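Listing S7. Sequence submitted for prediction.
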Amino acid sequence: MKNKIVLIIIFSLIIIGLAAFAIFSLKGFNDGYAIKIGDDIKVSPGEYMVYLYEQKKHFEETGGADIWETDIDGVLAEDLAKQNAIDTVIDVKVATCQADKFNIELSEEEFDNAKSESERFFGELGSEWTGKFDVTYDDVKKIIEDGFIRTKVFDYVTGGYTIDDKEFEEYFKEYFNENKADLVDMRIKYIFKGFNKDKSNFDKVYDEMSEILLKARGGVDFDTLIKEYSERNEHTEVEMKKGLFESAVDDVVCDMSKKGDISDIIAVSNGFYIVYASDVNPIDISSVKQAEKENYIRRKKDELYRRQAEKWLNSFTVEKNDEVFSSVNIKDI
């Protein structure tokens, strides 16, 4: 599992505020490298292709095999994947340069783990792929070892972080209020009646809903009331989730604590709801808070590390092959 986490760190979309770099081509690589960082670090074309391979896999797992013609914030998905691979290589290499400064090295066990993971991953790539892109086992082993070191550098830089409990409590309150409709585990039935855009029949519809509510709380079967009165009875029961209703409904429904609860009349922009809780599993607040606390700490550590990585990067020059990467078709990788 730890090895898998390291791979995720190596190949995940790392955003650390790096300057945007031009995308370069596999054609005409001179001097035997794709990227040169500082005076001594040379990234081979094969090494870069492994990073790009993983970006391709990540994008297609997230958006499907047809994602490559998609425009993402003004950038084609293919160009973004290529750029992410470049940024990730630079992030990892710059981190490894700090290892000596922090007396960081891999233990014998970590070297063994890196070796095992390298063998597995090289096998995953396959001889046809590695031959096509001139990727050697040593390329893969170097990538995996660098990833292990990058993880240790990250831990060293962020190891002193302590959470501000008051700040987190404020954050969690806001987070919970915004996401509670997705956090609840409940199914509901509802009656809806709309009013005119000019609200000319607002009071009339409200009075009708008041009569329906009296019947519901008086024991009349809710399904019967839905069929007789609701303007939206295509679903007799739905799973509660964020975005299904306006926030006014979310706020009321998420406070319903047991099966059989019936809400008051809920006003929204175009009508009224009465909601019946057909199945409720109460939110385990402590579990939700603990999980989000871990996410919060991880994000704060990422922010801390990013700021430090930006400072390190300022001391490096980055050179790339002059030819653009337009000749690389990511679909062929």
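Caption to Listing S7: primary sequence and predicted structure tokens for the chain studied. Residues 285-313 form the longest helix (29 residues). The first strand starts at residue 35 and ends at 37.
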